[in-house]
Amino acid sequence: MSRTRTPVVDGWFTGDGEGFRLLGTRCARCASVFFPREDTHCRNPGCAGGDLEEVPLSRRGHVWSYTDSQYRPPSPYVSNPELPWKPFTLIAVELDAERLVVLGQATPGVTVADLTVGMEVELVPGVLHEDAETIWTTWHWRPTGERA
Ligand SMILES: [Zn+2]
Fold it and tell me: Of 77, 79, 87, 110, which is the most buried if we count CB atoms within 10 A?
């Protein structure tokens, strides 16, 4: 039986491979960009608000900060307590064009020892969790190997 690939959150990302993008929204009045997407009203306190349109965000940015998760988070975090905990690395990335900071896991195998502030990373499709029926998809940040 083949498992379905399902985004862990609807509407936050789209596409595959080179076409994979995070989806934010942009205020038609003040051009502020939001991620996670804001669909109700502009969060810019100096803006009276406008229509919010969906926009794909840049695929590249630079490491703003990072850490790792050395312990199993409590519920509702989904993990199998029967399996040993595998730490993951979390990166806060400042997108080059939007100047927004977006959190995400690093690609598997990347540890905090591999990262420095200012290092360039790119967005790639990733897997957050798998069960018998579903592969839950997300985004990961992968170092490009280029220095800022
Ligand atoms: Zn606005």
Answer: 110
Domains contained in the chain, number: 1
Q: Are 124 and 140 in contact (CB under 8 A)?
A: yes
Name the residues around ion ligand 1, CB cutoff 5 A: 27, 29-30, 32, 42, 44, 47
Please check whether residue 4 lies inside any domain of the structure: no
Q: Is residue 135 part of a domain?
A: yes
Give tens-digit pLDDT for 20-61: 999 999 999 999 999 999 999 999 999 998 899 999 999 999
Tell me whether residue 2 is in a domain.
no
CA of 36 to the centre of ligand 1 (A): 15
pTM (two decimals): 0.87
**C-alpha distance across the termini of the chain, in Å:** 45
Domain of 144, in residue numbers: 59-148
